[in-house]
């Protein structure tokens, strides 16, 4: 499983907004320059994040984007799921998949492996918020088992 540029750049843009939380709207070209992402691509990502309610935008000379809520209230998982979609590593974990789609659906032991992978990934993504990124409190040696 790999994140696309949507997920990576979306998180970088949100990180930049989190760094400037409370300062008012941040122009898109500022975010683009700081995070080395094209303005055009960021426009698309920010529109998606705005529709999802994670950012608000304002127009005009002093316009730009800002977080809709404090950085500690927005998880990395929130951003990634909006920009990437669900983290189902196999189709049979999606909500629209059922018994009629696979003869082994209810008895598939391998499906349980993929479910644990999805759940573990979501747990990691949801355990970190934008404030953690800004504060640099993410320890590269940290594991989920150590946090429990």
Can you give a write-up of this model?
With 148 residues, this protein is mainly alpha-helical. The chain has one domain (5-140): Arc Repressor Mutant, subunit A, CATH 1.10.10. It has helices at residues 5-19, 28-35, 39-51, 76-84, 109-127, 130-135, 144-147; strands spanning 55-58, 64-67. It has a two-stranded antiparallel ribbon with strand order 1-2. Helix 1 (5-19) packs across helix 2 (28-35), helix 1 packs antiparallel against helix 4 (76-84) and helix 4 crosses helix 5.
What's the short story on this structure?
With 148 residues, the protein is mainly alpha-helical. It has helices at residues 5-19, 28-35, 39-51, 76-84, 109-127, 130-135, 144-147; strands at residues 55-58, 64-67. Strand 1 and strand 2 form a beta hairpin.
Oligomer: single chain
Tell me the span between the first and last alpha carbons: 25 Å
Indicate the overall shape. Answer: elongated
Residue share in helix: 40-55%
CATH homology superfamily: Winged helix-like DNA-binding domain superfamily/Winged helix DNA-binding domain
Number of helices: 7
* The CATH architecture: Orthogonal Bundle
CATH class: Mainly Alpha
Order of helices and strands: HHHEEHHHH
Query: Which fold name is given in CATH as the topology?
Result: Arc Repressor Mutant, subunit A
Characterize the biggest β-sheet: 2 strands, antiparallel
**Beta-strand content bin:** 5-15%
Task: Order the strands across the largest sheet as they lie in space.
Answer: 1-2
Weakly predicted, low-confidence segments: none
Entry keywords:
single chain, 148 residues, mainly alpha, Arc Repressor Mutant, subunit A, two-stranded antiparallel sheet
